[in-house]
Amino acid sequence: MKWFSVALLLLLCTLCCTDARTPKPIPKEGFSKLHKPLSVPQSFDCKARALAYQYGQLLQPNKNLSTVSDALQLQTLCGYNVDDLTFTYPKENQYKEIEPRGKIFIVDSENGDDGNVGSYKSPFRTVHKALEISRKIGGANTIYFRGGIHYLDQPIELGSSDSGLLLSSYPSEVAQLNGGIPLK
């Protein structure tokens, strides 16, 4: 609540001490009539605006982003049609799989148990157990996460002893590490 009071006080000071209702003119030196620095090429500026729009699509999928498009002036300044800027998610498995190294440990948050040996048939439940055993063995090892969401109850801390360690989704599966708490 204290931060809110400070923010409100700063806002009131700003409104009282400045004339916030009068728009300030853009300085003529260093800016073009397109409201961008003169030293930035138009093609670069438009690509940056398009990337900002696509990032908005990534953050807010299935939302009407016409206000974002208008604010970025994609149609006006760059001549872009926002329908042509639709963000597409990467296809699954389009990335090259990295060859495993050293000893392989499997982590399965749903069917694993930290009393297991970390094999395909007997996976660990947590990445922390897999890291503990990998560090005991030493060397560059591989920890594969089976598909699904792996909730972390504490941060993963990697150091120089973990150099060469490969952390990856199990081949042809999609695993997510999540620091949140699952809702029930």
Order of helices and strands: HHHHEHEEEE
Strand numbers in spatial order across the main sheet? 1-2-4
Uncertain spans, ≥5 residues at pLDDT below 50? 1-9, 15-24
Helicity, as a percent range: 25-40%
Amount of beta strand: 5-15%
Biggest sheet details: 3 strands, parallel
Oligomer: single chain
Mean pLDDT comes to 78
Structural class: alpha/beta
* Number of alpha- plus pi-helical segments: 5
- What's the total count of β strands? 5
| C-alpha-based Rg, rounded | 25 Å
Shape: elongated
From the N-terminal CA to the C-terminal CA, the straight-line distance is 29 Å
Describe what this molecule looks like in 3D.
With 184 residues, the protein is of the alpha/beta class. 31% of the residues lie in helices and 11% in strands. It is built from five helices and five strands. It has helices at 2-17, 42-59, 66-72, 74-78, 127-137, and strands at residues 104-107, 142-145, 148-151, 166-169, 175-178. The chain has a three-stranded parallel beta sheet with strand order 1-2-4, with helices on one face. Strand 1, helix 5 and strand 2 form a beta-alpha-beta unit. Residues 1-9 and 15-24 have low confidence and may be disordered.
